[in-house]
Amino acid sequence: MDSTPSSSSPFDLVSSALGRYVPGGGSAAAADPDDAREDRASDPPVSEGPPADRQEQILGVVNLDGDLRITRSNLDAAVFAGLDAVPGSPFADLLPPGDVPTVTRRLRQVLEIGEAHVARIQRLRRGDGSELVVSMSILPAAAPQEGLTVSLIAMARRLHLYAAETAIGTSLDIGETAQSLAESLLAWGDVAAVDLDFAVWTGEGVTERAQGRIRLRRAALVPDRAWPEGYVTPGGDLPGDASRLLAQAVRRNDAPQAIVIPDRKSVERLLGSPRVIRALVPGDRSASVACIPLVLDGEPPVVLGVAEVWRRANRPFHDSDLFDLQELVARTAHHVDLARQHQREHTQVLALQRRLLPRTGGNTVDIASVYQPATPDSAGVGGDWVNSFPLADGRTALVVGDVVGHGLGAAATMGQLSMEARALLSAGLAPDEVLEHLDETITLLDDAESGLAAGYSALGSTCCIALYDPVSHQMTLSSAGHLPPVLVLPNGEAGPLALRPHPGLGTEFALREPFDVHTFETPPGSLLALYTDGLVEDPALSIDEGIGKLAEVVSTVHPWDALEQAARHVVSTLVPARQRDDVTLLLARMIGYRKGDTATWRLPAREDAPARARAHVSALLRQWHTRDVSRDDVTLLISELVTNAVRFATGPITVRLIRAGHGLLCEVGDTGNGRPRLSAGGLLDDGGRGLHIVHRLTTRWGVRWTDTGKVVWAEVAG
Predict the structure, then answer these.
(1) Peptide bond into 604 cis (omega under 30)
(2) Could you give the 3-state DSSP secondary structure of residue 700?
């Protein structure tokens, strides 16, 4: 075998390290890692001439080519005796048949991606049929070489316990945590399964409950192979009888404890029902089983689930095996509970985020959105959010934001900003005014005990707000540090909107600059893309190139394409398979009102303005074939609003009428800055009677502010 390094490949580096530790003629090293030699295994290695009785080498290395065949190996230590690592033979020959698919998939993954797969517990098959438990790491070969280097550490029992606990604690995904536990348990048997209380699996709170109500779901099962019909595999619920039997077995005398059912006959006698036997017993050769509860310490202790290890008849369980299994499960039960808590947080944040996704944009805008969270083992879901909603005055609000951080802290801030933005926009505030309020909110949250003192800060969060007017076909937009929206015009011209950069929310300490307001023409058929940075960030591209690529892809959306399908296509085209951040996209196609459905008049603020307004409106409503009752109500409503404008404001008065859906939207604009308020006046009071009339004639009414004054709007049923 080759042990002389010829390059700096991973194989040569590991093999060189072995040369320092493997004594000449390593026959003194034991062949069984489970012998009681743990005190010798923990001694530090020496480079020259250690005493023969302290020689125990547990390191080995195998090199593979692109077809996963062995090219060379260094398995000189006696502990690896019987492993036939013959050059040219498939690495799969060293694996138990049931493990071949899983390990082959991991090897291929490292070949394709180039990222190491480190320290997973694995069994290897000796020529005599016995098995050796190792910690296996898969390393990509150093360029320009190709292939893989597989390093092996033969697992002494105590080392196995330590490595198993380390491996199980590396993920916050409850499925991966259960799978790691099952793989570690496989060192003591032929089949290992982990069944979790359904509440644990879904991330709910875990409490003591009646045994008859327990429900177990199979969370993990190894090895990965075809199982007999009826056997419960990952994702399946155990039959109610099986769940109760396992719960009763591990909770004897009201205390959780491990048990061993020693032979096949006892297993069948205890399970009783053929259906339960098919569900729990993995095969005809499985004779005995050890059941170990996953217990969360407390008063009283809470059982999270049950781990099961099955053995064949020729390998009975001993007391030392049960002790080791209990120790491993006890060490790792808290990792399962941490994964449960993360699952609950992940579910809550995801539910909040889904709830914030827009449902509709009204009749004047076609809306589609995509939210795609990062991988489940990230530290919670991020703070990306989009929203769109029709305003009562006929306009449509489009909002996108990105809150700093992940998890419940970011989710709480995200929900607060989203609801605050919606409330302020519905109250008639302009986009820049809404951002000023959000900026203050972020600063206040950061100063509060729930902010920095709790280890979370949302300073630097971003937001972009756009308001679409379906009559003028204009978009009014303000941004706080967010990436610019991409606009595609009906002629196909596409690109990011030109916005002056502004810091994120809460970051202007010394000088608070006002938020700019930008206005853009968006003719019917225009397509606007609002997004978060996860959609355009690519390590191989600058951010400007990423935005340009987005504009290029969005410009290919045909006016007749279904927007939901188009949004999914944009995301799948731009986002890599292994995304690093949450991805959010909102596509809005502008429709607007037809020209014949709107009318606008400008009147001087004179005493005859109400009469002129009534004449214009009455003629238009007859042209629209409006019902007599509605025509009378709208004419009276416009007359009262114009009268108020003449009485309390100066400058020209603008009257606008919009035929929208099943109703009519009336607007009267003036140059006044006073807010009309509905007062509880008496019957003989002159003041305020006009607003009482407005209130009774409309389904809703309100005020929005403009650069030159205000607009009072009101909605009347058609």
Answers:
(1) no
(2) strand
CB 543 within 8 A of CB 537: yes
| Token pair belonging to 387 | 């929203």
Alpha helices, DSSP H, located in 22-72: 38-41
What's the longest Cα–Cα distance across the chain?
A: 115
Q: What's the CA gap between 194 and 181, in Å, rounded? A: 8
Q: How far apart are CA 623 and CA 218, in angstroms?
A: 69
What do you get for the CA distance between the two ends of the chain, in Å?
90
What's the CA gap between 575 and 25, in Å, rounded?
55
pLDDT band at 351 (very low <50, low <70, confident <90, very high): low
Confidence of residue 468 (pLDDT cuts 50, 70, 90): very high
Strand (E) or helix (H) holding 293:
strand 286-296
Rounded Cα gap, residues 676 and 672, in angstroms: 10
pLDDT in tens, 206-221: 555 544 457 888 888 9
User: Two tokens at 699?
Assistant: 């389904």
Given a contact cutoff of 8 angstroms between Cβ atoms, the answer to whether 121 and 168 are in contact is: no
**334 close to 304: Cβ distance less than 8 angstroms:** no
CA-to-CA distance for 506 and 638, rounded, in angstroms?
43
What is d(CA 714, CA 690) in angstroms, rounded to the nearest whole number?
A: 13
Paired residues of 154 in beta bridges? 134
Per-residue pLDDT, 587 = 93
Whole-angstrom distance, CA of residue 528 vs CA of residue 550: 12
pTM of the model: 0.55
- Whether cis (ω within 30° of 0) applies to the bond prior to 223 is yes
> Strand runs (DSSP E) across 338-434, as ranges?
365-372, 382-390, 396-406
